[in-house]
Design a protein that fits this description.
The chain is of the alpha+beta class and about 190 residues long. The chain contains six helices and six strands.
């Protein structure tokens, strides 16, 4: 395996480093030294050259990918659904639910908080949640990076996603009510 291949393999499992390389905000000399120490490679010049080439490739692809993601989001709409709860149980429930996901032994429900009543087998419960649904064009399904873009956008603003479902043209994000206005503002700034 060449040094360039070793460097690429090293970077594949480090998304934050990849993102920094894409943005061109990494000190390549320092990163080369870290890689040299971890991979026990003697030729630091070859490591730095591999990083520089890989960084240039990433920057070219990032721009194209970001354009596609933003185009899809600009053609998307957002709806909010208040008064939701997320319940994770060990047994199926007899309740009216908006969304039910069977995870083979665990059941996740997104339901109106008034439909809960007394439930047996509750593993986790989040009350007073808001469901935000992003309706996108069909190209969403074939466009890499949309989910990563949305989750990164919210994570950077310290918003915790309670539940996340991406299904065909709908992306469903459930957040606590206290974060709902901020989440809506952030998402509406990138959608149509």
């Amino acid at each position: 395996m060449t040094i360039a291949q070793e460097v690429r393999n090293y970077l594949k499992n480090r998304p934050y480093v990849l993102e920094a390389l894409e943005k061109g905000i990494v000190n390549l000399s320092e990163l080369s030294r870290q890689i040299q120490n971890e991979l026990k490679i003697k030729n630091i010049v070859a490591i730095k050259a591999a990083l520089r080439r890989f960084s240039e490739e990433l920057q070219k692809h990032k721009h194209k990918r970001e354009e596609k993601v933003l185009k899809i989001l600009k053609e998307s709409t957002i709806t909010l659904h208040d008064g939701n709860s997320v319940v994770v149980t060990s047994k199926p429930l007899e309740t009216e639910d908006k969304i039910k996901v069977n995870l083979g032994g665990k059941f996740v429900y997104l339901t109106d908080k008034n439909n809960l009543g007394k439930i047996n087998g509750v593993l986790q419960k989040h009350e007073d949640c808001v469901m935000i649904v992003i309706h996108s064009p069909a190209e969403l399904e074939a466009t890499p990076g949309v989910v990563a873009f949305l989750t990164s956008l919210l994570a950077e603003q310290n918003i915790n996603i309670v539940e996340f479902i991406s299904c065909w043209t709908d992306t469903i994000i459930v957040v606590e009510k206290k974060d709902s206005l901020k989440t809506y503002e952030i998402l509406s700034s990138v959608t149509g």
